[in-house]
């Protein structure tokens, strides 16, 4: 599977600590029904066996709706569980190394906070970028902030698509209108909502207005 720009419109990143009385599996399905176009499993506090077990449950749900399923950071676990790809940060395994091991059809997303990082990720074989934090993030309190101007510069410096991430919600999304991103990645704005499906629907409309 290769990722397309349309798959990045609403990129839902999991955090079970945000959930309000429902299982992660139910929350992911509700997010997809509300408009999520890609799902990333990001769970920092479980071991590899637990991660793979959880991933296999979510892969079934995502593929039922033809939604790409990505694992955060751990490309080895992503390969073992049959995920469509991995998203790596600047301090994780190099994109070039993952591409060599995983092959051409494995989706690789890379975090970029500068034009230089974005261009290196593209040259190394990344399929898309995650760019941010564009707003203060409740899940990454020490995240480096970038301006809408820098987001636009990064997006225009590469030919691969980019998602804006970091504290984005339906109310503030308009601040990044016209920055050249293909979509937004959200955590708590979806998975921390009382009604996950309704939150995803609202975010889908909000992000469409920014493109």
Describe the structure.
The protein has one domain: TIM Barrel (Alpha-Beta Barrel). The chain is of the alpha/beta class and 211 residues long. The relative contact order is 0.18. It has eight helices and eight strands, in the order E-H-E-H-E-H-E-H-E-H-E-H-E-E-H-H. The chain is globular and about 40 Å long. Helix 1 packs parallel to helix 2 (48-64) and helix 1 packs parallel to helix 8 (196-208). The protein is 38% helix and 17% strand. The longest helix is centred in the first third of the chain and has 17 residues, at 48-64. The mean pLDDT is 95. It has helices spanning 24-34, 48-64, 75-81, 95-102, 115-124, 148-157, 188-191, 196-208, and strands spanning 10-13, 38-41, 69-72, 85-88, 107-112, 128-132, 162-165, 183-186. It has an eight-stranded parallel beta barrel, surrounded by seven helices.
Question: Which helices and strands, and how do they pair?
Answer:
Blueprint (H helix, E strand, L loop, with lengths): L9 E4 L10 H11 L3 E4 L6 H17 L4 E4 L2 H7 L3 E4 L6 H8 L4 E6 L2 H10 L3 E5 L15 H10 L4 E4 L17 E4 L1 H4 L4 H13 L3
Helix pairs in contact: 1-2, 1-8, 2-3
Largest sheet: 8 strands, parallel, barrel
Record field, number of beta strands: 8
Q: Provide a count of the helices.
A: 8
CATH superfamily: Aldolase class I
What is the average per-residue confidence, as pLDDT, rounded to a whole number? 95
CATH architecture designation: Alpha-Beta Barrel
- Give the proportion of residues in helices: 25-40%
Please trace the helix and strand order, writing H or E for each element: EHEHEHEHEHEHEEHH
Question: What fold name goes in the CATH topology slot?
Answer: TIM Barrel
Strand order within the widest sheet? 1-2-3-4-5-6-7-8
Shape: globular
Give the tally of structural domains.
1
Give the radius of gyration.
Answer: 16 Å
Residue fraction in strands: 15-25%
Distance between the termini: 24 Å
Q: Which class do the helix and strand fractions yield?
A: alpha/beta
């Amino acid at each position: 599977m290769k990722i397309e720009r349309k798959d990045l419109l609403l990129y839902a990143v999991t955090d079970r600590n945000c959930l309000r009385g429902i299982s992660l599996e139910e929350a992911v399905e509700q997010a997809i029904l509300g408009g999520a176009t890609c799902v990333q499993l990001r769970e920092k506090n479980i071991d590899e066996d637990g991660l793979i077990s959880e991933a296999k449950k979510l892969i079934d749900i995502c593929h039922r709706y033809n939604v790409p399923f990505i694992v955060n950071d751990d490309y080895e676990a992503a390969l073992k569980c049959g995920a469509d790809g991995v998203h790596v940060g600047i301090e994780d395994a190099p994109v070039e190394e993952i591409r060599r091991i995983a092959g051409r059809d494995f989706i690789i997303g890379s975090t970029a906070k500068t034009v230089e990082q974005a261009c290196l990720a593209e040259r190394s074989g990344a399929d898309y970028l995650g760019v941010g934090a564009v707003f203060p993030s409740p899940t990454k309190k020490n995240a480096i902030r970038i301006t809408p101007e820098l987001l636009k510069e990064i997006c225009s410096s590469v030919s691969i698509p980019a998602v804006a991430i970091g504290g984005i919600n339906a109310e503030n999304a308009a601040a990044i209108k016209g920055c050249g991103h293909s979509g937004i990645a959200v955590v708590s704005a979806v998975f921390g909502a009382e009604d996950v499906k309704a939150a995803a629907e609202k975010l889908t409309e909000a992000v469409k207005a920014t493109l």
